C-alpha cells in the first residue's frame, strides 16, 4: 500500500510541476525539502481524498509540510486502513 | 493645470503585435488582428470574429508550480510589465527604491479561469476546485503578480472601471506621481475575455459585430454599417516616472502624460448617455488638467468601438468639446478589435508613437462615415502631421469616461 501511495505522490508532484530529482523517503515535503507551500499542500490533500476517499482536515493538512515522504505515505496508508475498517 | 509625468517604458501583448512600433505599423497599414475563431478554440462557432493575442507561456513569467491555474490575463500582464520595465531600463532595487515604485494594473480579472473552475465544480464537486484558483482569477492579481515578479513594494492597486480601466490606470498613476508618493508607476490593463460565457453575454446583449463574410471588416468604428464590437484580448503596460526622477537617471522619455479627466454618465449600466455630455466633460477636465486648449490637441484616438449608440454618443461629445477646432480623429479598433479595459493602455501607446513619428493612424473599415458620427476622420491612409498633443478616450460599461492627454516629450 505504501509503495502505491509513494508512486501516487511522485506522479502528483510531477503533475504539480515539482522537481522530484533525488526524491527519497527522508525528503521533507515542506521548505526544507521539496518546498511545497500551503496551497500546494492543500492540493495534495485534495488529491489524496480524490484518489483514496480519505479526508484530512485543515489542521492535519498543515502538518504535511513537516513530514517526510515516508511519513506522509505512512500517514495516508494508516488513514486508508482506518477508514476501511469503519 | 498640473505638471506632466514621463512615459519611459511600454510593453504590449496585442492581436497586432507585441512591439509598440509593430502595433503602430499595423494600425496604420490596416493589418488586421480580426479572425474567425479557429476550429478547436472554445469560441469556434460561438462568435463570428475575435482578436487573439499571441500565446504567452505562463511558466515563462510565473513559477511553474504556481502557473497551472493562472488566468491568461495575468500572464499577459506580467509579460507586458517585464517588457515595459526593460524598455524603461529599470531594475527595481537597482535603479529605484522598491518602496518608491507603484503598480496600477487593472482588468476584470480571470473570468475565463473562473468559468473553467465552475465547470469542474459542476463535474466533480468540491474536489474540482483548485486551491490555486483565487490567486489565479482575482482582479488585483495582475498588479500583485507584477509586484511579486519585479520586487515592487510600494502602493499597488487595480481599478474596476470596465473598458475605461486602461485609461484610468494611467490617470491614477499620474495622480500618484504628482502627489510625490512614488517615483515610478507601472500602469495599464489586461483582459482575456475570449471564452464562451463572456462572448455569449456580449452576443445576447446584441453588442457584437455579426454577419460579416470577411472577419477583418467586422469592426467598423463610426461607419454607417457598423453593427457591434469585436472582442479582443490584450495587455498594455506603461512605465511612468516623475520627470525629475527620469531626468536624473538619464532615462529616454517617449512622451509625457500631460493631463487626464474622468467623469460618470450617471445614466445606464451599459448604454452611454446619448448626448455625450459626461464624456465631453471628461475631455474638458483633461484639457484643463494639461493646461491646453482644444487647438493644442493634434490628434484624438477615440474609444470608437463600433457600436451604434457608443460611437454616436462619443462623436457628439467630441463635436461639443472641439467644435471648429476639431483635430483629426480615428479609432484603431477597426484593426485591433475592442480590447476592453486594455484598449486605453494600447491606444495610449499608439498615441506615443503618433507623437514621435508625426503620423496619425486611420480608422480601418470606415468606408461610409455615419452622419451621426460627423468628425474630422482620418480615412483610409495614415495622415502625416507633426502634433504636440494627443488625446485618448476610454469609456466603460457603467458610464465611466476617461480622457488622457499625451504630449511630445520635453526631456
List the helices and strands and how they pair.
The complex is a heterodimer of chains A (86) and B (411).
Chain A (H helix, E strand, L loop, with lengths): L1 H14 L22 H15 L5 H5 L6 H17 L1
Helix pairs in contact in A: 1-4
Chain B lengths: L4 E9 L6 H10 L4 E2 L14 E2 L20 H17 L12 E6 L4 H14 L8 H5 L3 H10 L5 E2 L7 H15 L4 E8 L4 H9 L29 E8 L1 H6 L6 E10 L12 H14 L8 E3 L6 H15 L6 E2 L2 H4 L5 H16 L1 E2 L22 E2 L4 E8 L3 E9 L3
Parallel strand pairs in B: 4-5, 4-6, 9-10, 9-13
Antiparallel strand pairs in B: 1-7, 1-8, 2-3, 6-7, 8-14, 11-12, 13-14
Helix pairs in contact in B: 1-12, 2-5, 6-12, 9-10
Short summary of the structure?
The complex is a heterodimer of chains A (86) and B (411). Chain A has 86 residues and is mainly α.
What does this protein look like?
The complex is a heterodimer of chains A (86) and B (411). With 86 residues, chain A is an all-alpha fold. Chain A has a single domain, classed as Orthogonal Bundle (Non-ribosomal Peptide Synthetase Peptidyl Carrier Protein, Chain A). Chain A has four helices and no strands. Chain B is an alpha/beta fold and 411 residues long. Chain B has one domain (5-408): Thiolase/Chalcone synthase (Peroxisomal Thiolase, Chain A, domain 1, 3-Layer(aba) Sandwich), CATH 3.40.47. Chain B has a ten-stranded mixed beta sheet, with helices on both faces. Chain B has a two-stranded antiparallel ribbon with strand order 2-3. Chain B is globular and about 65 Å long. Chains A and B meet through helix 2 of A and loops of B.
Amino acid at each position: 500500500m505504501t509503495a502505491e501511495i509513494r508512486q501516487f505522490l511522485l506522479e502528483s508532484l510531477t503533475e504539480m510541476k515539482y522537481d522530484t530529482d533525488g526524491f527519497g523517503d527522508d525528503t521533507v515535503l515542506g521548505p526544507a525539502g521539496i518546498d511545497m507551500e500551503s496551497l500546494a499542500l492543500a492540493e495534495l490533500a485534495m488529491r489524496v481524498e480524490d484518489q483514496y476517499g480519505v479526508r484530512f482536515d485543515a489542521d492535519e493538512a498543515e502538518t504535511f509540510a513537516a513530514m517526510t515522504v515516508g511519513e506522509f505515505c505512512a500517514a495516508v496508508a494508516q488513514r486508508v486502513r482506518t477508514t476501511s475498517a469503519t | 493645470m498640473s505638471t506632466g509625468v514621463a512615459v519611459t517604458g511600454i510593453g504590449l501583448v496585442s492581436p497586432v503585435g507585441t512591439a509598440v512600433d509593430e502595433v503602430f505599423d499595423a494600425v496604420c497599414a490596416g493589418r488586421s488582428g480580426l479572425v474567425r475563431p479557429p476550429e478547436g478554440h472554445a469560441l469556434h462557432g460561438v462568435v463570428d470574429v475575435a482578436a487573439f493575442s499571441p500565446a504567452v507561456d505562463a511558466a515563462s513569467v510565473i513559477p511553474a508550480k504556481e502557473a497551472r491555474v493562472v488566468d491568461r490575463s495575468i500572464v499577459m500582464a506580467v509579460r507586458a510589465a517585464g517588457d515595459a520595465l526593460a524598455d524603461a531600463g529599470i531594475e527595481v532595487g537597482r535603479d529605484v527604491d522598491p518602496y518608491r515604485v507603484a503598480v496600477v494594473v487593472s482588468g476584470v480579472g480571470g473570468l475565463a479561469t473562473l468559468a473553467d473552475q465552475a465547470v469542474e465544480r459542476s463535474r466533480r464537486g468540491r474536489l474540482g476546485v483548485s486551491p490555486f484558483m483565487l490567486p489565479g482569477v482575482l482582479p488585483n492579481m495582475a498588479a500583485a503578480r507584477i509586484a511579486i515578479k519585479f520586487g515592487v513594494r510600494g502602493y499597488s492597486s487595480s481599478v474596476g472601471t470596465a473598458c475605461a480601466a486602461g485609461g484610468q490606470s494611467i490617470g491614477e498613476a499620474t495622480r500618484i506621481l504628482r502627489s510625490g508618493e512614488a517615483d515610478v508607476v507601472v500602469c495599464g490593463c489586461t483582459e482575456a475575455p475570449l471564452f464562451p460565457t463572456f462572448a455569449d453575454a456580449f452576443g445576447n446583449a446584441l453588442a457584437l459585430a455579426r454577419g460579416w463574410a470577411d472577419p477583418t471588416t467586422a469592426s467598423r468604428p463610426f461607419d454607417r454599417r457598423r453593427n457591434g464590437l469585436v472582442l479582443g484580448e490584450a495587455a498594455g503596460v506603461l512605465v511612468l516616472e516623475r520627470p525629475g526622477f527620469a531626468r536624473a537617471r538619464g532615462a529616454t522619455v517617449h512622451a509625457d502624460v500631460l493631463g487626464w479627466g474622468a467623469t460618470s454618465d450617471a445614466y445606464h449600466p451599459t448604454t452611454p448617455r446619448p448626448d455625450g455630455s459626461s464624456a465631453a466633460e471628461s475631455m474638458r477636465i483633461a484639457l484643463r488638467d494639461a493646461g491646453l486648449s482644444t487647438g493644442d490637441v493634434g490628434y484624438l484616438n477615440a474609444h470608437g468601438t463600433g457600436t451604434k449608440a457608443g460611437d454616436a454618443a462619443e462623436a457628439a461629445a467630441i463635436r461639443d468639446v472641439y467644435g471648429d477646432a476639431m483635430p483629426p480623429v480615428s479609432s484603431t479598433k477597426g484593426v485591433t478589435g475592442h480590447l476592453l479595459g486594455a484598449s486605453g493602455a494600447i491606444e495610449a501607446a499608439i498615441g506615443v508613437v503618433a507623437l514621435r513619428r508625426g503620423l496619425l493612424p486611420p480608422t480601418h473599415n470606415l468606408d461610409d462615415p455615419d452622419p451621426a458620427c460627423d468628425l474630422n476622420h482620418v480615412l483610409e491612409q495614415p495622415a502625416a502631421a507633426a502634433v504636440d498633443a494627443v488625446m485618448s478616450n476610454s469609456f466603460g460599461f457603467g458610464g465611466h469616461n476617461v480622457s488622457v492627454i499625451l504630449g511630445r516629450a520635453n526631456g
